[in-house]
Amino acid sequence: MRFSYISHLHCPKCGKEYPADRIQQLCECGSPLLVDYDLKELKKNWMPADLAGRSNDLWRYHELLPVMDEKNVVTLGEGMTPLLRMERAGQDMGIPHLLMKDEGIIPTGSFKARGAAVGVSKAKELGVQELAMPTNGNAGAAWALYAARAGIKASIVMPVGAPLITRNEVAVSGANLNLVNGLISDAGQMVGQAVKAHGLYDASTLKEPYRIEGKKTMGIEIAEQMHWKVPDVILYPTGGGVGLIGIHKALKELAELGWIKNKLPRLVAVQAAGCAPIVKAWEEGRTDSQFWEQSETVAFGINVPKALGDFLVLAAIAETDGCAVAVEDGELLQEQALIARLEGAFVCPEGAAAFAAARRLKQSGWIQAEETVLVLNTGSGIKYPETVNVEAPVLQPGDLLQRRTEEGEVSWGRKGKSTNEM
Ligand SMILES: *Cc1c(COP(=O)(O)O)cnc(C)c1O
Ligand SMILES: [Zn+2]
């Protein structure tokens, strides 16, 4: 048995093929490259039962991952995140079979750990010593920390507006951190210049082929956790779109292996109304997107004005009869609070956007009540403390505890209220 069944890379735009045993960035035509596997051979040698007893992380699918030698695996235990039933939120939305895959409890606090684990492992295997990347925060945090574990030097550039905690994650990893007074697209230009000048490995979104492979394990896990019967709809908060492209790729590979028996899910790309280039392109029937001017949203991970893989996202939506939806910041923040109150889950604003989109699509009739609907919560709400408004009274020691009611704050024990209600 081979550890990996990787065969080569190919360009989804012009079809050109590349070997996978040396560093490759974009295709010479400028498109991202995708990883191919020897699925015919793998189909003969690999069955779902083989997964029993394997490590409870994404490396349990190593045959469908690009790392050829197990000793190059760089792991912090990422993957196999919980798949949870969301009964009360589902009831509130009229979607009784609502599920959440919760990426909030993964190392580094967002699903970016998946892309970083596989991307950094493959970089190590290819002999990379120094990498650079622009980021909206979470990817930089994950790549900096995994690079540290791999002994690879990292240079990370993020907007000054990126979530503060992601700065700390990069800084504590010992990586070289630069902040830019601008957007991720500005950071990208600056990284491109440094890559050229210093011969660094460009780990920008989709400029190396392996991040997709890490993120696709979300799709494999969903299939395994649902016993190879996939949901009707998957909603995904879309920035660069890597996760959605990855999930689609995973499900197609599993279908080709004969592991998935039912119809592939309709994939929904969810964006913030303040940065919705994919949604606009979808509504206009285009196959690629246009730069979104002056983008702005509290859901920082999906503030990507122009994605290199936009055409792959739009193709994945079209192929699965999916759609693209934008939600307002106010709407997603309200949904975030509701999910916490009804389900006890503190989801990130990006995940909250996907819940808000599910609610909308149910209202519009695009989602039917009997369908199984899965929302990806791509990170932990704990990484974005500023999205929650905290109003709490500050008491002096010995004061009576207060409790908020509709008329305002009252102290327990006053106004004739019973003290043993709780
Ligand atoms: C990066 C990010 C996204 C968007 O991921 P893509 O795969 O780039 O579309 C969504 N949510 C969070 C929390 C992120 O950090
Ligand atoms: Zn090409």
TrEMBL record:
InterPro entries given in the database record: Ser/Thr_Dehydratase, Ser/Thr_deHydtase_PyrdxlP-BS, TrpB-like_PALP, TrpB-like_PALP_sf
Transmembrane segments: none
Single Gene Ontology BP annotation: L-serine catabolic process
GO MF term list: L-serine ammonia-lyase activity; pyridoxal phosphate binding; threonine deaminase activity
Record keywords, A-Z: Lyase, Pyridoxal phosphate
Domain Tryptophan synthase beta chain-like PALP: 74-379
Listed Pfam families: PALP
Keyword Lyase: yes
Cofactor: pyridoxal 5'-phosphate
SUPFAM superfamilies associated with the record: Tryptophan synthase beta subunit-like PLP-dependent enzymes
UniProt-listed PANTHER family: L-THREONINE DEHYDRATASE CATABOLIC TDCB, THREONINE DEHYDRATASE, MITOCHONDRIAL-RELATED
Alphabetized NCBIfam families for the sequence: PRK08197.1
Protein name in the entry: Threonine synthase
Species, as recorded: Paenibacillus yonginensis
